[in-house]
Amino acid sequence: MIHQLTLSDVCRENARRYPTTDAVVDGELRYPWPEFDSRVDRVANLLAAQGVKRGDRILWLAQSSHRFLELMIAAARLGAMICPANWRQSAYEMAFVIEDFDPAVIVWQHEEIGATVIKAREIADSHALWIQHDSKEADGYDALVDATSAEPVVVGEVSADDALLVIYTAAIVDRPGGSLLTHRNLLTMAATNSRVTGSDHTSVFLNSGPLFHIGNFQFEALPVFLMGGTNVFVRRVEAANVLQILADERVTSAFLMPPTIMAIRELNKSAGLDISRLRGGAHAPVWGDALPTDPTLWSQQPGGFGQTEVTGMPILRAFGEPGIGNAGRPSPFTQVKIVDADCHEVADGEVGEIVIRGDTVHLGYWNRPDTNAARFLEGGWWRTTDAGRREKDGTISFLGTLTRMVKSAAENIYPPEVENCLTGHPAVRAAAIIGVPDPAFAQSVKAIVVREPGTSVSEGELRDYCRERIASYKKPKFVEFVDEIPTVDGRTDYDALDATFGGGGYPGRVDISTPVG
């Protein structure tokens, strides 16, 4: 039998390949690759002692930390899965993930988010073992790991096609779903992006993006991990602190949003710190003169098309010559078709749904058989629910989403989730969500609400009700009360609501008259 490499195997071999290179840095803590690999064995033994085995699940309710990476590789060593949940969620949303994912072990953080996590624990029905990762007590994460054997874990065969990383995506239909990403998915993505970014054993990546987004892993925690470089972790993104880390650790890449990038540039005008090793990454055009004069190919051609379910961006502008399509070309491990409403391939130049297959397509959503059946076509093609077009030069144009979505800063907000929350209030008979233009955040959420007869509820009360149950950025900023919500063929007429209540600024939605599961 030919063994298929897993992320655990990569870690084990990097300990031999690069014995003097730091695998992780977190504040004053540093683990060279051999020490990191030994620490992974301790964590794997700790998990195994709690009964964690192949196919079991671990939930991370915390911000960014080196402990997540060692837990992830320990899970890989056992054949288990790990999910970094959105720590910005409300307690009710966390409780949903706890119950839906049904983990054997939950590793959580008290600092800053402890009150929310504790409330979620009270709400959820769970029999998991809870371990606090930022505790100094004897039952805290570090103490438990230090007291555990570092002997290599002996387990059965772990397949490269086993799920490892699970990321909950936004509620496109009615509730979030955990996208199941395999070792093969993650290693294929990492190998592809290491070619694009030029990552090697000298690369240093700052994990400044949220762990519950695929972007931090693609740009470029896992490419750097694969190539034996260094992953630096920072719990919170504060411009002054990040700037100091960029200089002190000689960081080569970081996952940063444009506002933070601009703040760092302004700070460094007076600080004058050397961050010349930093290359552009996904936001290269924003850095400008803060970059070295010879940026990489990725810096020259940033961007592409992707989603969590296809392990980031399998279509990239970095492949081939610049072309007509705004998303670029499929990676060497990806096939792309454009299909019509009946899922038949259309001719080049025609608009349809982007469907993808290849080594980066996930296994589906955890515990969502009906949705998986609707989204997978025969032959392993994944329906992205996004519209596109293949141009005559072979590039792909992304034209918009087939689902209605509100975009607030970097966050995707799907109306059904907020509508379901609102209609849970006893005074709300019906609700519809639209997006209204916002100069700072692209869009703000506006709710159109029909009260139950004989009841009374204010805009502020509904806002507070949502804030307790869903992430704060999803709550309505504005509420309009109406006698009825207009419909077309029995469905909410969102176009009429946009016209009446000032909706607009959507990131782009295309109608090809296709039902989406």
Automatic annotation (TrEMBL):
Annotated ranges, domain AMP-binding enzyme C-terminal: 417-486
Name of the protein in its database record: Putative acyl-CoA synthetase
GO function term, MF aspect, one: acid-thiol ligase activity
Domain AMP-dependent synthetase/ligase: 12-366
Superkingdom, taxonomy of origin: Bacteria
UniProt xrefs under InterPro entries: AMP-bd_C, AMP-bd_C_sf, AMP-dep_synth/lig_dom, ANL_N_sf, ATP-dep_AMP-bd_enzyme
